[in-house]
Amino acid sequence: MIEPKLEVPAELRDLAEKTIDQAEKAFGMFFEAATKSMSSVPGAGTDVSKQALAFTEQNMKSAFEHARKLVHATDLQEAMRIQSDFLRSQFTSAGDHMRQMTGSFMQPGKGKS
Known about the structure:
mainly alpha; Phasin; Phasin_subfam-2
């Protein structure tokens, strides 16, 4: 069975890419401000908060990369493969993040200067 092509005008793909770029830039500014803000407030939870923010930033970067790939999908099968790969990587990443976070909680003094 031949999969029908996704007929998306180039102008629409370009607009989607520009929108993704703008959103990524805005999130980048947010993460930069949040990191600076956390650095100025010392405390017991700061390390965990920084780690959580870093994980969130990594997840957002993955989501933007995923969106860029979807914009260029040429058929439904490719779009489904891209989605499946993204979900698989997100589950793996979430597991890694949970292990790192619980490791930080289980080892008092870890990561402290």
